[in-house]
């Protein structure tokens, strides 16, 4: 694993946390919230695990790879759900989650 | 998975977070801190992942099992390290981590 | 501040996190989610700050009092919102937040 | 409060979390860890509160200002401690904490 690779992954995790929280906030402001409940739940889980992974990487934890695996799994599930909604915030969130999952899997495999 | 089983696991995770943080605090007050650095790192990781698992379970997250797997893995590693130190705080932490890992693995397998 | 007082406050914070997350989960399962959005947001904020306060107290942080002040403020706001809803989960959450706020203010003043 | 102002503050909080965790990791690798224990404790508190503030801002929480106040207070204390140590990681951490505290106070006053 190169430092460059880890720095990129940290950046993607934090960007993903941001997009997940913005999506969560926007979902709660939609005219009809009922169809967004899965998205609300998943963006919260995803934001929290992105933070965990970013904290583990920045402090050089021996468990960073396992944290990145969990992060990638939750990101991937969040992409699936967000892809079901045409809203710009869901699409932006899906893109950030997809990028984050990819970098997290690269860390896990490094 | 029974509600009883999940409630027990939540309780063990929170107890483990507490014992990890008390061990962390005590390690930082030992006369010689150098031999305790692995313990300081691991108790921090462990406290954080215990909180993640407890939060996921209490909010009925679809990812609670995966969070419990990560929690069990980190707890098990923390037991290993704490067992190397005779301090009462390390032994208490190891016991809490062991109990937590067991309950987390039961949730993951349920 | 006595150890007893701190242990009680830690327990109330963790119980409050649990009740907030259970309320959040139940709100997202209500037939009409739209009226529950403020509650969903507040229970999330409250769960997170309860965890922060509990982590700070259990690791004997020099900032535990300030964390308890923020925790008490958010709990109090969460009580206000939950009191607007007759659901059992909202009433249970309000009760836990109220108890937590009280213990946190006692720590802050100790 | 402008969006620009908030985006800047989020960025500073996340940068500060990163520098705090890198300082924490480096402190635990110093030849003599005993003089670094206050720094280890403070960088952990600071990383955690930076994450809380960043999460609150990115999800548009009504408590973001109070979270920023707590964040600024802990950052300021972390600056004080890090300034006592000549290590590059402590100086980098102090600089990030100082920048973060400033932006957080601006949010709180906005």
TrEMBL record, chains A, B, C, D:
It comes from the Bacteria. CDD domains: DUF326. Coiled coil: none annotated. This is Ferredoxin. It comes from Paenibacillus dendritiformis C454.
């Amino acid at each position: 694993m190169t430092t460059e690779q880890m720095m990129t992954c940290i950046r993607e995790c934090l960007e993903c946390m941001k997009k997940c929280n913005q999506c969560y906030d926007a979902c709660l402001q939609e005219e009809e919230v009922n169809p967004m409940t899965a998205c609300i739940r998943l963006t919260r889980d995803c934001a929290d695990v992105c933070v965990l992974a970013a904290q583990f990487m920045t402090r050089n934890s021996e468990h960073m790879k396992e944290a990145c695996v969990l992060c990638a799994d939750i990101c991937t599930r969040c992409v699936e759900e967000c892809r079901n909604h045409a809203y710009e915030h869901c699409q932006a969130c899906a893109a950030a989650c997809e990028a984050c999952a990819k970098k997290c899997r690269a860390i896990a495999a490094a």
